[in-house]
């Protein structure tokens, strides 16, 4: 998840919560939905820095080592 869009995601979440409240959804239901969404959101934030350009354990490096043999 890109940090530049974080404000937009927060605004969208707040708009959904306010809209649900205005349509008569109880506060406890909205809070329960937020608690259920905490786990996937935490995974987005924790894994956000991973997978960008890390070369640790890449298959290209292993193929190069296998083709050249042991040093």
TrEMBL record:
Keyword Membrane: yes
Spans traversing the lipid bilayer: 6-23, 30-48
Keywords: Membrane, Transmembrane, Transmembrane helix
Recorded superkingdom: Bacteria
Residue ranges, annotated region (Disordered): 52-71
One Pfam family matching this protein: DUF2933
Record protein name field: DUF2933 domain-containing protein
């Amino acid at each position: 998840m890109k940090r530049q869009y974080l404000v937009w995601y927060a605004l969208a979440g707040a708009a959904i919560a306010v809209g649900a409240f205005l349509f008569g959804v109880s506060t406890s239901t909205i809070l329960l939905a937020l608690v259920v969404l905490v786990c996937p959101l935490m995974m987005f934030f924790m894994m956000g820095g991973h997978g960008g350009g890390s070369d640790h354990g890449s298959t290209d490096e292993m193929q190069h080592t296998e083709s050249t043999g042991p040093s």
